[in-house]
Amino acid sequence: MSETLENLSSETRQFPPPADLAAAANVKAEAYEEAASDRLAYWERQAERLSWTKSWDQVLDWSNPPFAKWFVGGELNVAYNCVDRHVEAGNGDRVAIHWEGEPGDTRTVTYADLLKLVSQAANTLTELGVVAGDRVAIYLPMIPEAAVAMLACARIGATHSVVFGGFSVEALATRIEDADAKVVITADGGYRRGKPSALKPTVDEAVARCASIEHVLVVRRTGQEVAWTEKDKWWHETVERASPEHQAQPFDSEQPLFILYTSGTTGKPKGILHTTGGYLTQTSYTHNAVFDLKPESDVYWCTADIGWVTGHSYIVYGPLSNGATQVMYEGTPDTPDRGRFWQIVDKYKVSILYTAPTLIRTMMKWGDDIPAKYDLSSLRVLGSVGEPINPEAWMWYREHVGRERTPIVDTWWQTETGAVMISPLPGVTATKPGSAMTALPGVNADVVDDTATPVPNGGGGFLVLTEPWPSMLRTIWGDDQRFIDTYWSRFGAGAGNGDKWIYFAGDGAKKDQDGALWLLGRVDDVMLVSGHNISTTEVESALVSHPAVAEAAVVGATDPTTGQAIVAFTIPRGNVATDGDAGEELIKELRNHVAKTLGPIAKPRQIMLVPELPKTRSGKIMRRLLRDVAENRSLGDVTTLQDSAVMDLISSGLKTGK
Ligand code: 6R9
Fold it and tell me: What's the CA-to-centroid distance between 576 and ligand 1, angstroms?
């Protein structure tokens, strides 16, 4: 890319933390100075949140960059830290998981129950021949057994590889093969959109292709008919009959904990490898700091799927290591109706809610009257993750969910970073709608130009992390070279530039006049229009700021005169007329609205009104597929698409405007 990203929009609204929350906050403003004065000592203090059977000799070994070792020589057991120690401290009766099935069935799992289940599952895996270092694939719906299975692997030092329950045979098989997994843990099926969907047939097909799999453990969730092979064992006939006694053994701080595959835009999926001591330190610390968690009184709910890194770090490892009480929900937000999320918040008196911009925009589209029907007064902190949150979606979240009381923490991080890196602190930061604000204490982030020089306030460029952090990925499973090439060869020492190793996140960002960070989306998505780099995020946010728009996705399509031209796919809000002339009028108005908000250079060449947008299971817009539509190509890889019918809907219902 020849020049830095444009810096088009400006936002002046600002919201200081509520005084009572600030006064009682877990982390105060001093933390920034403490961490800046001695970063490693700061992380060492965070590691002391955990129970170690052997302390470390060295905080960080960075002698062979970019391969980091944290808390070198330390030993701990991750499952012990997430379960046993809370029971030993007398909190066995505390609810760990309020589980809500989609059809309305519920389960309450206390920390004592969790200890029993995790111990039984650890014993079963051991009986099946799984030993420390082996890989176990997990392909489950959002049921408590998903967390149990992950913790059971951690307990015996095995490495889990969770694959989204919605992924295809192909996706599952390539992940099993790449990790050379020995066992798969799955279920007959799960509930989605009001009916049971099957999982086992996908596993059967994948296992038939993967010689490494010796056993398949099957949880009975729906009771549907399943085919049975000699590798299959029912969970309730093995795990639930196993001994509940299991002594957790300590493992080295760098023992692998999990592999999680990120699809990326090209090439085969990357198996991101995380280890134990540093990962648990940072997930535990950030969950406490960013959400201001008070484990005795808060009810926390993260709406992510366990198959996404957010589910790993902020449903399983962060919250459970902190002894939190949380809600886990199996299904979709509109089953049986569009109030389901708010009904759950009301029912369990959820105090901390962590969700994604895609859901917030969907709720905006469904209408303000839906959340208004519920008592949401228990909420005190709201979080967002997964994509840049448009300022208008942020304001809607604050107004209609937070009822103008609760701070919003917009948390930037990645599968690769393992835990939150950039976020406001709810008791400290005066937030700006749409900004993730600043790096957390202990984290060093910056925005640089293409010569790796930090941009001044007011400038835009590439987001980088300039110092190693405890929960950083250790490598790409089986491919150290790809790890170096992907993340470390753009800037700094890995690019033959100086002796500092600089991590390139792949995102564009800008620093505003106060130094707050604004994430601008993946740099692969940046558009080059008449020589100007324009971020998709800013044009999308301009569209969403129009009252007729619920959601927008913007791509750059090849254009003979401007190089690339801006093409926008826009979902109108529910009550907006779009038939015939009304649609044409709206398109004209929206093009002018963007030009007025961001400047004429950002005026879309074309706006299409669509009923839906293609998204991944974790809710990210797949702009790559929209680029294919905008350039009249056949669609590329659609295996990670959440709902394959969406692309047909878009192609058949297009209304174009020039
Ligand atoms: C946790 C997670 C990582 C990519 C990341 C960025 C985008 C995540 C964001 C955000 C702006 C935020 N992203 N959080 N962009 N603001 N608060 O999402 O991990 O699935 O690996 O995706 O998601 O583009 O690089 P992962």
Answer: 31
Of 384, 361, 463, the residue nearest 431 (C-alpha) = 384
CA of 420 to the centre of ligand 1 (A): 10
Is this model's pTM higher than 0.90 or not? yes
pLDDT at res. 651: 73
Rounded CA separation 327/210 (Å): 35
Q: Among 517, 524, 520, 533, which residue's Cα sits nearest to residue 602?
A: 533
In 276-403, beta strands by DSSP E: 299-302, 325-329, 352-355, 381-384
Identity at 323, one-letter amino acid code: G
Q: Whose CA is nearest to atom 11 of ligand 1?
A: 388
Cα–Cα distance measured from residue 446 to residue 142, given in angstroms and rounded to the nearest whole number: 36
* CA 650/CA 632 separation, integer angstroms: 13
- Summarised one tens digit per residue, pLDDT across range 59-86 is 999 999 999 999 999 999 999 999 999 9
Check residue 115 and give its pLDDT: 98
Q: Is 385 in the pocket of ligand 1 (CB under 6 A)?
A: yes
Distance 387 CA to ligand 1 centre (A): 5
Tell me the Cα Rg of the chain: 24
> How far does the centroid of ligand 1 lie from the alpha carbon of residue 422, in Å?
11
pLDDT at residue 647, as a whole number: 82
Instruction: Tell me how far apart the alpha carbons of residues 160 and 173 are, in angstroms, rounded to a whole number.
Output: 15
Give dist(CA 210, CA 226) in Å, integer.
20
And the tokens for 168?
């295809």
Residue type (1 letter), 518: W
- Substitution candidate for ligand 1 out of 164, 385, 486, 518 with most atoms within 8 A of CB: 385
Which of 210, 509, 284 minimizes the C-alpha distance to 388? 509
Percent composition of the chain: helix, strand, coil (DSSP 3-state, to 5): 35, 25, 40
Cβ of 414 less than 6 Å from ligand 1: yes
- Which among 546, 244, 194 has a CA at the least distance from the CA of 390? 546
152 neighbors 122 (Cβ within 8 angstroms): yes
What pLDDT does residue 399 have?
A: 98
pLDDT, position 467:
98
Has 145 been labeled as part of a binding site? no
CB 503 near ligand 1, within 6 Å: no
Other Cβ atoms closer than 10 A to 237: 11
Q: Which residues of the chain have pLDDT under 50?
A: 1-3, 655-658
CA nearest neighbour of 410 among 434, 427, 393: 434
Residue whose CA is closest, atom 2 of ligand 1?
414
Element (DSSP H or E) covering residue 318 = helix 318-321
Answer whether 517 contacts ligand 1 (Cβ < 6 A): no
Torsional class of 128: left (φ above 0), alpha (ψ -120 to 50), beta (otherwise): alpha
Q: DSSP letter string over 231-252?
A: TEEEHHHHGGGS-S--PPPPEE
Residue 375 is given by DSSP the state -
Ligand 1: does its nearest atom lie under 6 Å from the Cβ of 310?
yes
Structure tokens at 377: 């007064």
Which residues lie below 8 Å from residue 233, measured CB to CB, with a gap of 6+?
128, 215, 216, 217, 218
In contact, 29 and 428? CB cutoff 8 Å: yes
Listed in sequence order, the DSSP H helices in 38-106 are 39-47, 78-79, 85-86
Residue 295 Cα, ligand 1 centroid: separation in angstroms? 27
To the question of whether residue 192 is assigned a binding role by annotation, the answer is yes
Contacts of 227 (CB under 8 A, 6+ apart): 200, 201, 204
Pick the residue whose CA is nearest to atom 19 on ligand 1.
Answer: 414
Instruction: Name, in order, each residue with C-beta under 8 angstroms of 512's C-beta and a sequence gap of 6 or more.
Output: 10, 11, 432, 435, 457, 458, 518
